[in-house]
Recover the amino acids of this structure.
């Protein structure tokens, strides 16, 4: 039986709490050829000040060495509230993931080339934030890990699936998916509004969230994170809600 589909189509809906974010080009407006030719690597970010206490702690732990900028963590968006797409409910919350056998699911339905390339770059053991999207209060609710690297997404060949792609061929599949497994809930819900506040502060002082894709390419349902970005966002779970 196929896993429940999640909303990860060509143009992910912008989060309802993010009406003022500017999108230079939506995924729907980008041609397949343009997307396919884009590099899978996002522009590198930088990190300096404005997050001094956190940075001092991390430097102390690493002997003062700066983190090398690599994209080894991820943010995965999924919709926790019911929404029909071509007659199919695409809802898939973290509770739905926890209810799966071995708390594991395939991350299917991605229909954007850049997001697909990010899926193909994932390695076993890498961790990702499970992000509730397109809901009353979007934000990070849990941590998952990659347990199977990219392989053909079965939904592209299923005519009954909302993500069916008649142009894809089994001998040369266009779309991929990975398997992820639940690791743990975050110690508290980390809302988009709180992450955005840090993003805006870091834009001014060069912190790790300055170029976070959650705000620079917010419609992408699969987003890479640097080690610094992942560590900083994870550190927020220890603080009090803003």
């Amino acid at each position: 039986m196929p896993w429940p589909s999640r909303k990860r189509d060509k143009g992910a809906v912008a989060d309802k709490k993010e009406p003022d974010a500017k999108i230079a080009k939506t995924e729907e407006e980008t041609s397949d050829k343009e997307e396919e030719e884009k590099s899978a690597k996002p522009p590198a970010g930088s990190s300096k000040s404005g997050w001094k206490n956190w940075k001092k702690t991390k430097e102390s732990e690493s002997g003062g060495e700066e983190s090398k900028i690599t994209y080894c963590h991820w943010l995965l968006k999924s919709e926790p509230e019911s929404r029909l797409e071509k007659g199919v409910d695409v809802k898939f919350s973290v509770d739905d993931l926890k209810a799966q056998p071995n708390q594991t699911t395939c991350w299917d339905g991605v229909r954007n080339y850049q997001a697909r390339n990010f899926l193909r770059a994932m390695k076993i053991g890498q961790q990702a934030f499970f992000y509730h999207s397109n809901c009353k209060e979007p934000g990070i609710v849990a941590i998952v890990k990659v347990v199977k690297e990219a392989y053909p997404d079965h939904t592209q060949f299923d005519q009954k699936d909302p993500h069916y792609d008649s142009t894809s061929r089994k001998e040369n599949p266009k779309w991929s998916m990975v398997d992820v497994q639940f690791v743990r809930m975050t110690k508290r819900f980390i809302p988009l509004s709180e992450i955005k506040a840090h993003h805006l502060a870091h834009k001014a002082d060069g912190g790790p969230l300055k170029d976070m894709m959650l705000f620079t390419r917010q419609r992408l349902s699969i987003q890479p994170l640097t080690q610094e970005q992942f560590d900083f966002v994870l550190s927020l779970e220890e603080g009090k809600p803003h």
User: Anything to note?
Assistant: The helical segments are 32-37, 52-61, 94-98, 113-121, 192-205, 213-216, 227-235. The CA atoms of residues 106 and 121 lie 15 Å apart.
